[in-house]
């Protein structure tokens, strides 16, 4: 089955069972998270693949519940995920009130894994929701309140009451695909992402407005003068550099050219208020820095 390491043999010895399975020459999600978090699109693709793998397990008779979904138990080669470590996996037993053995990884295990109820496929959904949160933030939900586009889906996945969660992974796939179909529509509007602002979408009216804006700035730059104050050509040159820096900074931030805002602290995966505040504060800081540098250059 795709997404689960192939088992070559199972042998019984004095210590129990010895399982020989496929070797995967790639990192775990935990290894990658030591270096960086995942983008919204990468996280979506990983979670969607895991949903497909879990759907096959959950459709078995009896259902197979993994019970230990976490970054350390998932290999990722940049395209495909592989779910492994089925050491505490179990079959669902109808009418059983709780698990006979309490097992699971703290932070990822659903509440019912600690003896409240019997685990079922919704327990894997809870762990998958925690994993989704960690892929985006590198933090557990209890330590960080995610405010990104995935918040509604993740909150439903990690509901304390199993009845409040998604009841199967197909529901998650449906909501994820719907969410990212909307996001992809937004991306498609930008036909040429590296083109100058105003020319990225290819729309005529935007290009006309952009041309007028660029020409207006060039006219301001050329006609810029300081009256009633002796000033050297060098100082005029520095003043023009300051104006150019203001224009470029403003253009970068307020058109989000090449997704520059995504690199701002506290911008990614937060609500609109935090995003707007972060953008304006960062823009003002850079304007002030450009003025300070210009002042130093003028006084050289």
From TrEMBL:
Domain of life, source organism: Bacteria
Top-tier EC class: transferase
Domain named Protein kinase: residues: 1-195
Signal peptide stretch: none
GO molecular function: ATP binding; protein serine/threonine kinase activity
Keywords recorded for this protein, A-Z: ATP-binding, Kinase, Membrane, Nucleotide-binding, Serine/threonine-protein kinase, Transferase, Transmembrane, Transmembrane helix
Family matches, as SUPFAM superfamilies: Protein kinase-like (PK-like)
One Pfam entry name: Pkinase
The enzyme's E.C. designation: 2.7.11.1
Cited PROSITE patterns: PROTEIN_KINASE_DOM, PROTEIN_KINASE_ST
Membrane-spanning ranges: 204-224, 236-260, 280-298
Identification of the protein by name: non-specific serine/threonine protein kinase
Organism per entry: Faecalibacillus intestinalis
Organism ancestry: Bacteria, Bacillati, Bacillota, Erysipelotrichia, Erysipelotrichales
């Amino acid at each position: 089955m795709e997404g689960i390491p192939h088992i070559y043999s199972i042998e019984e010895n004095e210590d129990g069972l010895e399982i020989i399975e496929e070797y995967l020459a790639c990192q775990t999600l935990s290894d990658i998270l030591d270096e960086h978090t995942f983008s919204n699109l990468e996280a979506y693709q990983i979670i969607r693949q895991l949903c497909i793998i879990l759907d096959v397990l959950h459709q078995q008779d009896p259902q197979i519940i993994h019970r230990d979904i976490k970054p350390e138990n998932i290999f990722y080669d940049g395209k495909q995920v592989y779910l492994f470590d089925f050491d505490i996996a179990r079959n669902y037993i109808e009418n059983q009130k709780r698990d006979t053995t309490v097992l699971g990884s703290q932070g990822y295990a659903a509440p019912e894994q600690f003896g409240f109820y019997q685990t079922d496929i919704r327990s894997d959904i809870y762990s998958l929701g925690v994993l989704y949160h960690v892929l985006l933030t590198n933090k557990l939900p209890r330590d960080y309140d995610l405010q990104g586009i995935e918040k509604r889906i993740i909150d439903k996945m990690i509901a304390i009451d199993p009845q409040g969660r998604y009841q199967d992974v197909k529901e998650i796939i449906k909501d994820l695909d719907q969410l990212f179909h909307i996001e992809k529509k937004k991306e498609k509007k930008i036909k040429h992402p590296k083109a100058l602002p105003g020319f990225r979408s290819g729309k005529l009216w935007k290009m006309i407005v952009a041309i007028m804006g660029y020409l207006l700035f060039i006219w301001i730059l050329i006609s810029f003068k300081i009256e009633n104050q002796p000033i050297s050509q060098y100082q005029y040159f520095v003043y023009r550099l300051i104006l150019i820096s203001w224009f470029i900074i403003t253009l970068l931030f307020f058109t989000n050219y090449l997704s520059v805002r995504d690199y701002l602290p506290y911008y990614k995966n937060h609500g609109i208020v935090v995003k707007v505040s972060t953008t304006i504060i960062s823009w003002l800081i850079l304007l002030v820095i450009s003025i300070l540098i210009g002042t130093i250059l003028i006084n050289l």
